[in-house]
Amino acid sequence: MEKRSPSTQEHSRLKWVWTNLKGRRAFYGLGIMGSITFNVLQLTIPFFVAKLIDTFISGPDAAYNLEHNRRLFFIYIAAMVGLTLVRTVIVYATGMIFEGNSQWFLYRIRNVLYDKVQRQDMNFYNTFRTGDLMTRMTGDLDAVRHMIAWVIKTIIESVALYTSTMIYFFFMDSLLASILLVISPLIFIVILKFRKDVGPKHALLREKLSGLNTNAQENISGNRVVKAFAREKYEIEKFDRGNTEYSETNKKTALIWLKYYPAIETFANMMPIILLVIGGFFIIDGRLTVGEFAAFSGLIWAIANPMRNLGSIMNEFQRFKAASAKIMEIYYSEPKIKDAPNALDLPDRFKGKVEFKDVSFKYEDGKLPVLEHISFTVEPGETLAIMGETGCGKTSLIHLIPRFYEVTGGQVLVDGHDVRELKLHQLRKNIGLATQDVLLYSDTIDGNIAYGDEQLPKNEVVKFARYSAASDFIAKMPEGYETIIGERGVGLSGGQKQRISLARALAIRPSILILDDTTSAVDMETEKEIQEGLRNLDFPCTKIIIAQRISTTKNADKIMVLQNGHIMEVGTHEELVKKHGYYHSLVTLQTGEEEFGKAGEA
Length: 602
Ligand code: GTP
Ligand code: MG
What we know:
This protein is α/β, with parallel strands linked by helices and 602 residues long. Helices cover 65% and strands 9% of the residues. It has 21 helices and ten strands.
């Protein structure tokens, strides 16, 4: 990432907030105006009190005015009451505006972030941890909301109050005002030092919270592993350690303020003392009226409090800084794999031809190539079986077809077009994929099968369940297709999950069906039923099936054996058996000599 100076970063952060307030800027501006008005109106009470004192109590004409100018007295009182009411209305309205706008902003950004996260590449999910992403969408967003609802409002209020009071002071007595003003820069120096100290702490706090969330998230979704290994105590202790660290960092952050607080308080408290001493001399000298002195002392808080506020403003600003950096990282992230500007528009159903031309592939974070010089063609309607020992690159290979990853060499073509020239949405809509690690949603079985096509009628859902040999066990479930399955398909067996995932892949009537070890957990009998179902699909479909069992692969039009990212053998069952290579040895292993004899003759 390019290095930028802190000030430009802050500038771009606030600019980002401003950009995203589009559509609400006028309304937000109204809130700011309201805040300023409210704070300027804070001067009115001391102003009228000064007038009242000088006109009716301590001025030279006080007695006369009290006798003959009663009307003015009531006007002053009425003005004070009236303006107080106006202030109440304004403070209520601005509160609503700031709160409303911040909630609106939150809603908008949350949607953008979710959208961004949804569209990311596989690499993104390999890089970011779920707990961290969740922290960005919750805690971090709240820090940004707080900035809009509270920090900006408080800054404006403080500046408005401080400035208007100072101006008023200068009008009353410029010398006294100047003496009071001298203290201000001292406070700024302290605050800037505080900022330097507290900034890194907020970044650290944010990381600790993210770590804590990640830890909790992983353990909640992995609770079965924790239980199986009886590691509850260990996990609880680990969480406790994280929690303690977080809480300690929180305390340390709060303590930093305590270090600076006495200095700030001293400066703030010097204000009334200076006023008392110098103001007192000025009254004796006749330079200042009693009413003016009352206005000064009635408003001295309006000078001191904004200075006191600077600490919490700075604190919250640093929190915003740490949080917004995390949010903006996602906000501005772009998937690397996206539609080419001149992508072909092919709205019709694909024919389903898949071709690899000298494909090589390496993971971005990996050192060695996972696939090298892979070339093969699968014609529409054909079945290709892919075999090979674990880790040889089968899953990586099929992930190149829906363009989950980009090839590092060669070309993957679908229907004769390089997948990089196709629109991702159209390409993926044509591919039905049942992944190796099955993920189902906490929804009904019906909802899970119809995931890719919400409009799918019930009888079609049942049909696809039949193709994948799932209809029998679904019928036996308490509420059939309406049975709600838990998070990640809790409540189903491994084989049951695989069959629902297969039905889900079929339900979009894909031109290309890709099964990654999808029948590994089902028994031979069920497997046979699934094979039968796949042969009798009522739509044309190219099938690419990764499997370890000969029974799954032997009827394929072509069997490809991978080893270490290379194609080792390719051919039909009969051809490969005759070759006496890896496939041959698999057949021996899986069917026994007797069966093999038969297979060899076939
Ligand atoms: P099985 O599913 O176990 O049968 O293996 P497979 O043939 O499907 O292997 P796969 O394609 O998943 O992995 C091939 C190689 O790529 C292995 O050496 C993995 O370690 C490596 N690999 C898989 N996924 C990633 C990844 O996300 N990043 C990196 N750097 N390497 C990966
Ligand atoms: Mg695999």
